[in-house]
Specification:
Elements: E1 8-13, E2 18-23, H1 26-32, H2 35-46, E3 60-64, E4 78-83, E5 90-95, H3 99-105, E6 111-114, E7 121-126, E8 129-134, H4 143-154, E9 159-162, H5 165-168, E10 176-178, E11 182-184, H6 189-195, E12 198-204, H7 214-225, H8 234-252, H9 262-272, H10 278-284, H11 296-299, H12 302-305, H13 310-314, E13 317-321, E14 331-335, E15 341-343, H14 347-353, H15 362-375, H16 379-394, H17 400-403, H18 413-424, H19 430-434, H20 438-443, E16 455-456, E17 459-460, H21 470-478, H22 492-497, H23 499-504, H24 515-533, H25 549-557, H26 563-583, H27 594-597, H28 614-625, H29 638-641
Parallel strand pairs: 1-6, 7-12
Antiparallel strand pairs: 1-2, 3-4, 3-6, 4-5, 7-8, 9-10, 9-12, 10-11, 13-14, 14-15, 16-17
Helix pairs in contact: 1-2, 2-26, 7-25, 8-9, 8-10, 14-16, 15-18, 21-24, 24-26, 24-28
The structure holds iron/sulfur cluster.
Length: about 650
Amino acid sequence: MGYGFWGKVLWVNLTNGEIWEEELPESLYRRFLGGYGLGVAILFQRMEAGAEPLGPKNILAFLPGLLTGSNAPFSGRFMVVARSPLTGGWGEANCGGNFGPALRGAGYDGLFVTGMAERPVYLYIDGNRAELRDAAELWGMDTVETEKALREKLGTDIRVACIGPAGESLSLISGIVNDGGRIAARCGLGAVMGAKRLKAIAVRGKARPPLADPEAFKRATASYRELFRRRPSYWSSRIPGLFRRLLPFLRRFGIRPSGGPVQMVIDSFRIYGTAAGTAMLVELGDTPVRNWLGIGFRDFPLEKSSKLSDESVIRHNIRSYGCHSCPVACGAIVRLPDGSSGHKPEYETLAAFGPLLLNDDLESVMLCNEICNRAGLDTISTGVAVAFAIEARERGWLPKELSEELPLAWGDGKVIVELVRRIARREPGLGNWLADGVKRAAELLGEEAQEAAMHAGGQELPMHRGLYEPAVALGYAVDPAPGRHTATLSGLTELKAYSRYLALRGIKLPGRYEYAPKGQAFGIIIPIIRAYDSLGLCHFALQMGEPPFLAWLNAATGWDFDEEEFLKVGKRIQIMRHAFNAREGLPMHFPLPARELGKPPQEIGPVAGITLDLETMVANYFATIGLDLAARWPWPEISDLIP
Ligand code: SF4
């Protein structure tokens, strides 16, 4: 064991019930860190190509990052990886909450699950004890009930990651939930867990691996925490609301704000979380509206989007909460319309059940969020599936029995809630038809319907548009786990945060629609994000000043990483992720729907007249990371490619 990590992971074979520990060499951590990095290194080696995503040979891994559970601010993330049943390729989902720190606290840098149990089981980990237990009584419960039942049985200090009915019924848009509403949502990994009949993982752990230089770690943490000492002022709490009222003027004069002073961003996260931005993003043309065919300010004007933004949302707050060691606590528990409590919807959820469906009924959005959290469903994919169904009915593509099942219509909150409930339970008819996402749903309709199925490589597109920021579309198309906003650069703010890494390569910050330089910059920055993720830190921290992650990494491990080495590690992780897909026979990049690319371009509004040049960005990205777009597996020189 080195410093800053345990040097040990846990393996479970559900077919024969075997459980064992494996020690890993320090060199593996130095080359891949933790989280996604460690995950792709091990899955690529240990999983045979062609393993069925829902079969026993698929390996489902839970991986805290290298700094997860440390006292570094924002260090609560863990990642789940496996071969995705939704895309058929590399699958990963990143999640906050407290499960990751608990798994690390139990003495493991990762948990790898293979095989398939005969009956439902859950895994109980307590320090050095790990055992499989019968889960017959838990099967069928939703995620909140499951967590509650396990905590009542095992103690309130237990942390639980589990699937709900959606994962049990192998819905390809299901995820894995912890803390009753934090979900590793994307890539259909809940179905992988459901296929293995693993209902839950319950873990108790508070230990921390020793640090190489605890004083240096403390110093770096203390100075960064200074940024978060000031409490939000009266004015900072009013800025998003005031700003919202200015939006029509900003739009009229073509002004596109991208971020703001760090203190304002921190305050805004503290007060509103990501709900601060809904109205702004709709107004500026970033949020997709009416299944990508609408224009924000015209079809979902400010008086509607304001109902799903900032003050309107937090009116329902009961209390704020945050992930492990988070200084801003962007989450909140809210009062639901039926009087019960649940999680505050985040921006992606507000947009997916709001403007995407022309729905301004916040209560219905909150109910959809709660249904998805309890069932263990991805809110992005579910919202996109509902949008597809409404358009399909409107355009007469649905067979009679589906068309007559519900009066699907844009903006009808009640019907939307009912449809989401049916998807969550995979009820025969519309629910079953949509439970595996839009790609499969569209395959059952005619050719024409394909144009309305908004996905990349099978995964539903998130709530940011490439027309507003082209690097978003590039990320959707080229990431080995495509169609995810966390694999993109959502704006110039982020590009600016990484400009130091661009400068190392002599690259200037590209303009918004400078396609070749943008593809090149993406090829530098995305590997950094991959390495950053593998530390287990939250992405939002990057919008709030630059967290001293290299100082934390070096103080924790005793290594001497500089920007160059960090970049090299990120590139290694990224290339391994591409290699995983190439080995499965998947393309190097995925086509995007014409609507996302601006074909035809919008006639009015902030992104009018724009058609993206995706090909140029794609070519420049691959050239920058050194992969041949035309190469077929096996790549002859993989060891040369992996630096
Ligand atoms: S900013 Fe929000 S998502 Fe990120 S660590 Fe804090 S509470 Fe979790």
